[in-house]
Amino acid sequence: MSTTDPATLFSTPQSRRAFLKQVGGGIAVVVTFSDPLGLLESATASNVPTDFNAFLRIAPDGGVTCFTGKIEMGQGPITSLVQMMADELEVPYERVDIIMGDTDRCPWDQGTWGSLTTRRFGPLLRTAAAEARQVLVALASERLDVPISRLHVENGVVFDRKNQRMRVTYGELARGKSIARHLKVDPKLKDVSQFRIMGQPKLRRDSLAKVTGQAEYAADIRVPGMLYAKILRPPAHGARLKKADTSRARKVDGVRVVEDGDLIAVLHELPDVAEEALGRIAAEFDEPQVRLSDANIHEHLMRIASNGRITDRGGNLDRGRALAKRAIETTYFDGYVAHAPMETHAALAQIENGKCTVWASTQNPFGAREKVARAIGFSERQVRVITPFVGGGFGGKTGNVQAVEAARLAKAAGLPVQVMRSREEEFFYDTFRPAAVVHIRSGIDGAGRIAFWDYEVLFAGKRGAAHFYDIPHHRTAVRSQAPGERAHLFGTGAWRAPANNTNTFARESQINAMAAAAGADPIAFRLKHLKDPRMIRVLKAAARRFDWKPAPTPSQRGLGVACGIDAGTYVAAIAEVDVDPTTGEVDVKRVLSAQDMGIVINPQGATIQMEGCVTMGLGYALSEEVHFQGGAILDTNFHRYEIPRFSGLPEIETVLVEANDIPPQGGGEPAIVVMGGVIANAIHDATGARPKRMPMTPARVKAAIREA
Amino acid sequence: MAATISFRLNGERVRLKADDSRKLLWVLRTELGQTGTKYGCGRGSCGACVVLVDGEPRRSCMADIGSVRGKEVVTIEGLAKGETLHPVQKAFIEHDALQCGFCTPGMILTAVGLLRSKPRPTRADIVEGMDRNLCRCGAQKRIITAIEAASHELASGKPTT
User: Fold this and answer.
1) Between chains, do B98 and A638 touch, taking CB under 8 Å as contact?
2) Chain A / chain B CB contacts < 8 angstroms
């Protein structure tokens, strides 16, 4: 318990004044600049602006507001962060409101990604709440003239344990007070045994708004006088505009054309009229002739890859090779995969009195603020980014290009302007999960143990590349483009559990191939090579719940298994498939996913994220691939780019393995990483054919069966 | 050419001037301020823009505004009766049958239309009836469960809409 004066105010009166004005009266807790707890996520925490906003505010009526730079895109922090705050603060869950992703009101945040909200931001938020509780108890001690040691808090009421009539509410304590408290001590966070609200399954808090159409997304914001923009786009990446004749577009009643350097846009008070007018612009582009396509991309990637770097090694590969009785060398391939959130990128920008307000669908509102400010020559203080509900992100809403376009157009037009991408633009400008190659050489000794493991991944990235099996001689190398080479013709970026989907597909396929070579059951084979107690526990839990009957693979039962680690969480999945050998079609009948994610804040939310991961993961495993010819993207809508549907849905079971001795870990991404591997291994178990390229389309599965 | 078009929207009579060929989606979202109806693909492939026209689910991104003249259009904003949610809305909440919520209005209205034509659907009926609606977050499992629950409530004859 802190013994400092509860009314201690932080050092710079100027920021304190600004901040109290911002939040109104009451009590608020802010984070320190120096971040002594090391809780800020960013490697660039020193760049954090000094005008911090509050983490929470207790209003004179006792209501609590939680402020966070995190955003809600379906993954559920709108519920779990409130659970954390209410529990640590000792207030009813229902009394906590949450403001998310508003750069003028919320503390700086790097962005909502990497399954970091619960595991990295969570402790910070809980610390702020615990600190506020201490401030309130100290104030109550003064008010009631009762020593702190005798005070107890329940449901926002502080009372004397010995005389419960001596009591005061948080609201009463906050009334007439303007206290801003810097977070500088390390208040004790609750142990799991003390949780009242954390650990309880809670339904989403935003459902009512979402089922009644009241939930607002960026493209739903309306301000007086706003215009809708449609922007001239090139036919292919790399194409350069030669000339554009906008005269016919300008003839459309009510149209305004903005030509701002590389940005040519048609504005109108009706979006569909703007779209039609855009079609009247006669534009000519220079299109470079590039012969790269989805058919030859992997050859290209292998040709231009650097030597890379060894990220992990142990033992001596030469010795391992000498020990191996049987070596297996396989090259695995992955294609480009789109994020394809149901909500396309949108932003509305309004400039008034020297301040630019942007409502944007973004995973990083503070990043958007920085980019917008730079683009229109404003200071960051002159830009406010507000994040309404985001209609899916998955790593794809981090570039904020649409926010910059809206701000530039609003500045040029002198009116508020909305930019909302069409589905075709969404696919064209997506930052795809990169096409990648994984090359693995491995071998087993006479006793059926893995003797060596030589792994190199090209272009997917490092996450998930290192294996977690007990292998005496091994090496992991990560390669990207050699200097002066260009890997991709268009944008690539983080896609839900970046790199790990590709790496886990390859690793788990190869592990299974070795199990098959050893004539072993794939779960027994894995357990034989595992030392990490968390992975052993989660794999055994999956096997038990699936009612796994050991048998050497391929068993013709169509059963696959895969393990993975992502964002500190351990996952094991088992799938059952039917494969039609004549068509190559794969029917996924059942998927069981088990995970150890440490302490679980919201078991309901965690379960739903797992179900979402399983469902979304079936897409990249079986059907999702972006086809392209040179810089032209050929799949630009859902009739060609096939994401999972109701009809492909298997029976999905989820298991949360209790692990209360481990702090909360990531939940939004981990369960998706095993989906490629588990389906590949189930296909192999059914057919004896090893799929080596994702997505495992009917044509590829059929070809693999033919070769087997 | 702009013509006068009148129809009923969520129980209220509306009149506006618009080209017959403009799409219902944009008129709803812009002039009529019903932003609960979402744009997802613009070609009828995803179902985010589904509304009810005389009780039937229609993809408003493909429907000419002229085609609803004299008809009854219900958007997600008009599905509840005052504070009383439609059983499908209620079931979506109770079963957490949504994540980002962007496909939700179209999912719910498609399900309402499905239950109108098939009050006691089998699981296969639900899968077939919902298969042209896309959800990227992967809420399909819960959406099926929610529709089953709503069909039970509707079939049990409890007062609804």
Assistant:
1) no
2) 170
Share of chain A above pLDDT 70, in %: 91
| pTM exceeds cut of 0.80 | yes
ipTM attached to this prediction: 0.97
In the chain, the amino acid numbered B95 is H
The verdict on a CB contact (< 8 Å) between B36 and A213 is: yes
Of A207, A637, A644, the CB nearest to B45: A637
Residue A320's identity, in one-letter code, is G
pLDDT at B158: 57
Q: Is A669 an annotated catalytic residue?
A: yes
Nearest CA in chain A to B31: A270
Helices (H) then strands (E): counts for chain A: 18, 29
Peptide bond into A224 cis (omega under 30): no
Helix (H), strand (E), coil (C) string for B72-128: EEECHHHCCECCECCHHHHHHHHCCCCCCCCCHHHHHHHHHHHHHHCCCCCHHHHHH
Which residues from A are below 8 Å from B144, CB to CB? 646, 649
Alpha-carbon gap: B33 to the closest alpha carbon of chain A (Å):
9
**Selected residues 76-115 of chain B with any CB under 8 Å from a CB in chain A:** 76-77, 79-80, 85, 89, 92-94, 96, 98-105, 108
Chain B environment of A220 (Cβ under 8 Å): 29, 35
Q: Which residues of B touch A394 (CB under 8 A)?
A: 136
CA angle A100, A104, A110 (to 5 degrees): 60
Would you state the pLDDT for residue A6? 29
Q: How far is CA B81 from the centre of its chain?
A: 15
Residue whose tokens read 């059942």:
A590
In whole angstroms, what is the distance from residue A521 CA to residue A509 CA? 14
pLDDT in tens, A493-544: 999 999 999 999 999 999 999 999 999 999 999 999 999 999 999 999 999 9
The pairing of strands A96-100 and A163-169 is unpaired
Alpha carbons A214 and A68: distance in angstroms, whole number: 22
Q: Which pLDDT band, with edges at 50, 70 and 90, does A108 fall under?
A: confident
Looking at the predicted structure, is the pLDDT value of residue A33 above 50?
Answer: no
Mind listing the pLDDT tens digit for each residue in B27-79? 999 999 999 999 999 999 999 999 999 999 999 999 999 999 999 999 999 99
φ and ψ at residue A234, rounded to 5 degrees: -75, 160
- A570-589 exposure pattern, b = at least 16 Cβ within 10 A, e = fewer: bbbbbbbbebeeeebebebe
Q: Which residue in A has a C-alpha nearest to residue B21's C-alpha?
A: A272
Choosing among A342, A418, A604, A651, which should be mutated to test the B contact, i.e. which has the most B CBs within 10 A?
A: A342
